[in-house]
Amino acid sequence: MKALLMRYWPYWSGPVRDAGFAGLMALILFGPVVGVVLKGYDFELHPSRVALLVGIVILGRLLLSLALQTARGKVWLQRFELGRDQGVQVVPAHQKSLWRWVLPLIILAALILPFYANKYLLTVVILGLIYVLLGLGLNIVVGLAGLLDLGYVAFYAIGAYGLALGYEHLGLGFWTMLPLAAVLAAVAGAILGFPVLRMHGDYLAIVTLGFGEIIRLVLNNWLSFTGGPNGLSAPSPTLLGLEFGRRAKDGGTPFHEFFGLTYDPNYKFIFIYLVLLLVVLLVLYVKQRLVRMPIGRAWEALREDEIACRSMGLNHVLVKLSAFMLGASTAGLAGVFFATYQGFVNPTSFTFFESALILAIVVLGGMGSTLGVVIAAFVLTVAPELLRSFADYRVLLFGVLMVLMMIWRPRGLIRVSRRGVVPPVAQGAA
Amino acid sequence: MSVPMLEFRQVDLFYGAIQALHQVSLQVQVGETVSLIGANGAGKSSLLMSIFSQPQVTSGQILYQGRDITGLQAHQVATLGIAQVPEGRRIFPDMSVEENLLMGSLVIGDTYVDEDRQRMFELFPRLRERRNQRAMTLSGGEQQMLAIARALMSRPCLLLLDEPSLGLAPLVVKQIFHTLRELAADGMTLFLVEQNASHALRLSHRGYVMVNGRISLMGTGEELLTNPQVRMAYLGGH
């Protein structure tokens, strides 16, 4: 046995070393977290639990290393390495996309969904769609224009508070505030955009981070105007003036009475869902067009090389501001939906963690990729709902997911592909 | 004499306390090819970039077709018909070759896009082959070609080139200069900043030599090529 082990030692040495190192790391990581349990003012040691976890890690790492030495393992590893950071693909111009068939089906399914879903599922999907909107907006700023914005949640807050405050102080409803909030957020985006025009990278990130915190702190402390930590109530949407409550305010007719239906609190959510779905589709469409237009190309040029961009005759001020404003207005829209869906807003919904979550959606989905962002938004908002029992470990899972992504798919879930251009017909040849 | 295409009048340029350009005056006539040669750090690139106000000149005037463009923003200068091939090429790496070309035509709009694109592909057949490839995946020489083609897409009156031979194989350098010669023969006004003095001077009608931020010599390309000082300093003394 010993002779056998020694003979094949060259094959064993690597994996054993890997396994030992993994075990050490596991011990450092799990030792204090799992091994020491607080009990009142005292604590208990649980060495067996640590040993079990470390053992699993060591064994797993050993088996993985050994498996990777086999012929099949090597092929697999190679494919893995090759798949890394291949960057952007260029799709041939004439290639017909499968999307032409899939997209209508998805839209149809999305339209039918609310009539068969229960309230819980519906609210989860609404939340997912709100984050799709946020992800799409931030994707313009971070993914396309390359401006790292860590205070994006501020625009989301402006949209949400826009609805609540507009209702409270001016008596404006959902439909008035929806476009107005987008405009308000865009103006805020411009206000933030101007001072940060000369900044890049880290500095920009810090300033935007500060902006996000300023908005949150103002909302939290301006008691007379925003209600402070107590928050404000936000109105529900109406359909042509018909309300979705059991009883309409001011003597109007509620929705269910007008159509002779029995009252169902779900109607409100179905309606929010459908409107939200339309807005998301609209934003998707607009974004898809913008990317193909000169402005989209200008954003990307700005991300890739600002100096070259300027020497191409692009006004970098306009390019940056347009990215900031469009991104912000999308967040404003999302904010209105969030407020009306919750029926209530307060500052705790707009912390830095939200900004980080939205940024994670963009990074996870793949910078600049629309489809990737849509998928990532659902993964990061719906998954925590499904994993309710793991709620305590949510942030941990989040971190692990991010680290793994950065190692294996640094360009995100969906790689951005560019459409090739149809070669122009030569004048003489035609 | 007619109005020069580009003129520097006693331009001073400071980086903080350090003076990079001293009373520089030079002219580029319409249809002329002019090169500015000099050693590393002489101030050649600063001079070229000062046309785009990056950095802005401290005193003096820069005129383009008789119009004072001193202190104009980079993007405004670019819309006047001045295109530049920046040092180190600065193509957009994640965009395809075709998209890089489209970026060049942004200033003048879509009117001539198809026609010009076709022209560029005739000028640089290699780019046609690599039309749908990402610019990052091109070789250095191809990237330089792309940078030149991108600049030409804006139909400039004046083409500025900053070290087009930088980091390229001798054969590729030859090819690039051959293309530049063709462009010049078609009537394009070229202003070239180069360390590769022999190639640059052979191409140029006139040349300026810059030493420590001052124009120390000027003359026709041939004069400078045979000038003993220039031969010693920049052409290896042969």
TrEMBL record, chain A:
<feature type="transmembrane region" description="Helical">
    <location>
        <begin position="172"/>
        <end position="196"/>
    </location>
</feature>
<dbReference type="Pfam" id="PF02653">
    <property type="entry name" value="BPD_transp_2"/>
</dbReference>
<keyword id="KW-1003">Cell membrane</keyword>
<feature type="transmembrane region" description="Helical">
    <location>
        <begin position="20"/>
        <end position="38"/>
    </location>
</feature>
<keyword id="KW-0472">Membrane</keyword>
<dbReference type="GO" id="GO:0015658">
    <property type="term" value="F:branched-chain amino acid transmembrane transporter activity"/>
</dbReference>
<keyword id="KW-0812">Transmembrane</keyword>
<dbReference type="InterPro" id="IPR043428">
    <property type="entry name" value="LivM-like"/>
</dbReference>
<keyword id="KW-1133">Transmembrane helix</keyword>
<dbReference type="InterPro" id="IPR001851">
    <property type="entry name" value="ABC_transp_permease"/>
</dbReference>
<feature type="transmembrane region" description="Helical">
    <location>
        <begin position="267"/>
        <end position="286"/>
    </location>
</feature>
<feature type="transmembrane region" description="Helical">
    <location>
        <begin position="356"/>
        <end position="383"/>
    </location>
</feature>
<dbReference type="GO" id="GO:0005886">
    <property type="term" value="C:plasma membrane"/>
</dbReference>
<feature type="transmembrane region" description="Helical">
    <location>
        <begin position="124"/>
        <end position="152"/>
    </location>
</feature>
<feature type="transmembrane region" description="Helical">
    <location>
        <begin position="98"/>
        <end position="117"/>
    </location>
</feature>
<feature type="transmembrane region" description="Helical">
    <location>
        <begin position="203"/>
        <end position="223"/>
    </location>
</feature>
<feature type="transmembrane region" description="Helical">
    <location>
        <begin position="50"/>
        <end position="68"/>
    </location>
</feature>
<feature type="transmembrane region" description="Helical">
    <location>
        <begin position="390"/>
        <end position="408"/>
    </location>
</feature>
<dbReference type="Pfam" id="PF11862">
    <property type="entry name" value="DUF3382"/>
</dbReference>
<feature type="transmembrane region" description="Helical">
    <location>
        <begin position="321"/>
        <end position="344"/>
    </location>
</feature>
<dbReference type="InterPro" id="IPR021807">
    <property type="entry name" value="LivHM_N"/>
</dbReference>
<protein>
    <submittedName>
        <fullName>Amino acid/amide ABC transporter membrane protein 2, HAAT family (TC 3.A.1.4.-)</fullName>
    </submittedName>
</protein>
From TrEMBL, chain B:
<comment type="similarity">
    <text>Belongs to the ABC transporter superfamily.</text>
</comment>
<protein>
    <submittedName>
        <fullName>Amino acid/amide ABC transporter ATP-binding protein 2, HAAT family (TC 3.A.1.4.-)</fullName>
    </submittedName>
</protein>
<keyword id="KW-0547">Nucleotide-binding</keyword>
<keyword id="KW-0067">ATP-binding</keyword>
<feature type="domain" description="ABC transporter">
    <location>
        <begin position="6"/>
        <end position="237"/>
    </location>
</feature>
<dbReference type="InterPro" id="IPR003593">
    <property type="entry name" value="AAA+_ATPase"/>
</dbReference>
<dbReference type="GO" id="GO:0015658">
    <property type="term" value="F:branched-chain amino acid transmembrane transporter activity"/>
</dbReference>
<dbReference type="InterPro" id="IPR052156">
    <property type="entry name" value="BCAA_Transport_ATP-bd_LivF"/>
</dbReference>
<dbReference type="InterPro" id="IPR003439">
    <property type="entry name" value="ABC_transporter-like_ATP-bd"/>
</dbReference>
<dbReference type="InterPro" id="IPR027417">
    <property type="entry name" value="P-loop_NTPase"/>
</dbReference>
<keyword id="KW-0029">Amino-acid transport</keyword>
<dbReference type="GO" id="GO:0015807">
    <property type="term" value="P:L-amino acid transport"/>
</dbReference>
<dbReference type="Pfam" id="PF00005">
    <property type="entry name" value="ABC_tran"/>
</dbReference>
<keyword id="KW-0813">Transport</keyword>
<dbReference type="GO" id="GO:0005524">
    <property type="term" value="F:ATP binding"/>
</dbReference>
<dbReference type="GO" id="GO:0016887">
    <property type="term" value="F:ATP hydrolysis activity"/>
</dbReference>
<dbReference type="InterPro" id="IPR017871">
    <property type="entry name" value="ABC_transporter-like_CS"/>
</dbReference>
